[in-house]
Amino acid sequence: MPFVAWVTVILAVLIIFMAAVGLFRVVLHLRAVDKTLETLTGGVGVIADKTSTVPASVAAVNGSLQPVRDFAEGI
User: Fold this and answer.
1) How many helices (H) and strands (E) does the chain have?
2) Could you read off the pLDDT of 20-38 as tens digits, one per residue?
């Protein structure tokens, strides 16, 4: 095999190797982002649960405020 062919093969192998290393780094970064997004999603779920509406309590509060409403209408 001529010298130029070997140089071409070596350059091709180096280019392919560097592309593979770059893609592997991208995979590692995407895995880190995936972990962060899972944590963030879990946190958002907890916040949504803690700040959800309280429809059962609203009826009780409205019942307790009925005398205030009656007094305000009587004025």
Assistant:
1) 3, 0
2) 999 999 999 999 999 999 9
Which stretches of 1-75 are DSSP H helices? 3-50, 55-64, 66-74
Cα–Cα distance between 40 and 46 in angstroms, integer? 10
Which residue is it, tokens 């916040």? 47
Has residue 16 got a pLDDT over 80? Answer: yes
Angle at the Cα of 37 from the Cα atoms of 30 and 49, rounded to 5 degrees? 170
What is the distance of C-alpha 20 from the center of its chain?
27
3 state DSSP class of 1: coil
